[in-house]
Q: What sequence folds into this?
């Protein structure tokens, strides 16, 4: 019995001394800091892959050529992104779609009301800036694009809403199909 009292007393003395020492020198553990939720990046795809940022403006027809800019506009406007994967100078169906649909007033009005336009071109005779080529190639891989023209409708996060290609019948037929996908 004497031994257990002596052991308890020693333990109590040690514990008291340890606590006092700990209190005097303090604890060097930083206080927890609330982490900020990172702002969504405009160049991160829906699968979390980083897409190279192309530093290029809109075309004269109002199509973005920068994925980051299109995503930013989509977030601001609340409109989905219409991505046109095209071979503008060699793909016969791309040229036909561009001429019969995308260059019409009817399509331009529909697009202004419904989507943010993004053109990702893969020309053969025109040299694009390196950052544009890298961006376009990364998005082609991201979405597993195998043929042209491929038109994707996506949300600002990159999630696919619908997929289109060339449709005979002009802008009325094409925009009707696109509108059905957006519903």
A:
């Amino acid at each position: 019995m004497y031994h257990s009292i002596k052991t308890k007393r020693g333990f109590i003395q040690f514990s008291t001394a340890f606590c006092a020492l700990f209190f005097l020198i303090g604890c060097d553990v930083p206080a927890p800091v609330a982490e900020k939720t990172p702002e969504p990046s405009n160049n991160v795809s829906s699968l979390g892959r980083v897409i190279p940022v192309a530093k290029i403006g809109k075309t004269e027809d109002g199509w973005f050529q920068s994925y980051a800019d299109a995503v930013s506009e989509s977030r601001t406007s609340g409109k989905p992104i219409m991505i046109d994967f095209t071979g503008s100078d060699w793909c016969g169906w791309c040229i036909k779609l561009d001429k019969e649909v995308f260059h019409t007033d009817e399509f331009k009005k529909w697009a202004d009301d419904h989507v943010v336009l993004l053109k990702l071109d893969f020309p053969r005779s025109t040299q694009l800036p390196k950052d544009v080529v890298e961006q376009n190639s990364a998005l082609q891989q991201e979405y597993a694009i195998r043929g042209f023209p491929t038109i994707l409708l996506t949300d600002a996060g990159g999630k696919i809403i619908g997929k289109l290609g060339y449709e005979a019948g002009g802008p009325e037929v094409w925009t009707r199909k696109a509108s059905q996908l957006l519903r």
Residues 1-183 form a domain with the Glutaredoxin fold (CATH 3.40.30.10). Confidence is low (pLDDT under 50) at residues 18-40. The longest helix spans residues 2-25.
